[in-house]
């Protein structure tokens, strides 16, 4: 048994909580219960099915789990497993004028394509343009 707070192996039994063994860390004093991951095999199978190309809705129906749960599992796996790559040079962003609104006019107008080149490091995560609301 490892302490989830400090990672120490020096844990001793300290009673029961809801019929589960409670442990106390001798280093930091934290008390916790050892929990089992009941969905570990289901999660691993769902990740495998997602990797081979099945949709989240199909996986959810097969495993009797909501598709949002499958998405949560996939995102957590990706965050724990993969590192986000950093751009090596400039980033090119295309801005399309067709979706801009003029004042309070509800029809879309404009044409053409504008290209913007940013030096490395100026791009913010999840950058997107939104039409102003009037």
Q: What do these coordinates show?
A:
The structure is a single chain. The protein has helices at residues 40-51, 56-63, 67-81; strands at 11-17, 20-25, 31-33, 91-96, 113-118. It is α+β, with helices and mostly antiparallel strands and 134 residues long. The chain folds into three domains: 1-35; 40-81; 87-123, no CATH class. The strands form two sheets. A three-stranded antiparallel β-sheet has the order 1-2-3, with no helix packed on it. The protein has a two-stranded antiparallel ribbon with strand order 4-5. The longest helix has 15 residues, at 67-81. The protein is flat. It starts with 10 loop residues before the first strand and ends in a 16-residue tail after the last strand. The model has no long low-confidence stretch (mean pLDDT 77).
Question: Which features would summarize this protein structure in a list?
Answer:
3 domains; three-stranded antiparallel β-sheet; single chain; 134 residues; two-stranded antiparallel sheet; alpha+beta; 21% strand
Rounded Rg: 25 Å
What is the SS-derived class?
alpha+beta
- Helix-strand topology string: EEEHHHEE
This entry's quaternary arrangement is single chain
Strand content: 15-25%
Instruction: Determine the mean pLDDT.
Output: 77
Coarse morphology = flat
Terminus-to-terminus distance = 59 Å
What's the short story on this structure?
The chain has 134 residues and is of the alpha+beta class. The chain contains three helices and five strands, in the order E-E-E-H-H-H-E-E. It folds into three domains: 1-35; 40-81; 87-123, no CATH class.
